[in-house]
Amino acid sequence: MVHVTPLDPATAPTIVMFIRHGEKPSDHGAPRGINDDGEHDNHSLSVRGWMRAGALAGLMAHAPLPSHPEVHPPQRIVATKPSQTAKSRRELDTADPIARRLEVVVDSDLEHGSEAEVRENILSDSRATLVVWHHGTMGHLVRGFPIANADDVPHHWPDDRFDLIWVLMRDPGDSEFTFTSVDQRLLDGDVDSST
């Protein structure tokens, strides 16, 4: 059972978007992970992951679009930082191109496992927020927000999907969000549920 963090309509954002990091390297050979200097790094994104990060930066910079009306330019980006137990840089690798394009600073003070603290942090700031989080705890993180259609929120982010955006939206004054899952449809091979 996830504890739901209440919100104050006067201080909470009206939109919070959640993405998983871009594609990662294979555990067995290609594709390999590379850092932003082009060096081999298993804790960084694969080439396709870097392509996704760039495509997301373009999407967020031009949002909302007719193809993605639920997506808005974030005024704030929150991403997990590497730690001793979770060494992945992939969340930051994905967030950084978006932040540079939008001229936003990435808040990377929190680690995996601090979902309750992240929720409180997000709900105390009215800016539109993008969260780049580890998919293994994404369901737990999102389900802790006050959501009118909470039964629609998956318990787990699908292991094989890097091409989703989970969106929480609410009208000003409302004390609950509405959850929507959006297909990114940015790279060849991405799923398009509308067809």
Q: Keywords, please?
A:
single chain, 195 residues, alpha/beta, six-stranded mixed β-sheet, 4 helices, 23% helix, globular
Describe the overall structure.
The protein is α/β, with parallel strands linked by helices and 195 residues long. 23% of the residues lie in helices and 15% in strands. It is built from 4 helices and 6 strands. The chain has a 6-stranded mixed sheet, with helices on one face. The protein is globular and about 50 Å long.
List the helices and strands in order: EHEHEHEHEE
Mean pLDDT equals: 91
Strand arrangement across the biggest beta sheet: 3-2-4-1-5-6
Per DSSP, what share of the residues sits in E-state strands of 2 or more residues? Answer: 5-15%
Structural class category = alpha/beta
Rg estimate, integer Å? 16 Å
C-alpha termini separation: 35 Å
Low-confidence parts, pLDDT < 50 over ≥5 residues? none
Largest sheet report? 6 strands, mixed
Number of distinct beta strands: 6
| Helical fraction | 10-25%
Count of helical stretches: 4
Shape: globular
Helix/strand layout:
Layout: E1 15-20, H1 47-62, E2 76-79, H2 90-102, E3 106-107, H3 115-123, E4 129-133, H4 138-143, E5 164-169, E6 178-183
Parallel strand pairs: 1-4, 2-3, 2-4
Antiparallel strand pairs: 1-5, 5-6
Helix pairs in contact: 1-2
Task: Please outline what is shown here.
This protein has 195 residues and is α/β, with parallel strands linked by helices.
